Amino acid sequence: MSKRDQFKTALLFGEGRHEYNFCNFLLGTNKFSVLQKSWSIDTEHASGCSAEDILNACIDVMSGKPFDVTLCFIDVDDLKNDFTDSFEAKRDELNVKAKENGIDIVWQEENLEEVLFVATNGKIKTKGVSKTKLKKYEDQILRSDHVKHIFHRLFSLE
Hints:
alpha/beta, four-stranded parallel β-sheet, 10 helices, Rossmann fold
């Protein structure tokens, strides 16, 4: 019996490499190690494209792999730019498509960099944040509303 058969399974799917690294950082923290005692959690990512392309890439990664929960991280800033007049309608459409495919979208109201900037009171300002910098501000990041939201979504499904 594989680990996948013994545990609940989750996929954390990021918009790009930054989200992928962030998800892996989270999984390495003590807070998330609790989940890993009863969960097998995979991480994957798209390559920073439109919200719809990211959702489709997530669906492709999921095909043939039954996950108990899939969280797909999508930045809202590009969606707002691409659909200025119909942003809410497009967001609703993507949420419906995600639900139909067993995916829960985690909308990052601006982008991951903005989430980290707010969580660390401006200490993390740029893209390509290193693991060392994330580790330095781990407590602040783990107390952020964004991480609490992610943790709640996973933990509430146990």
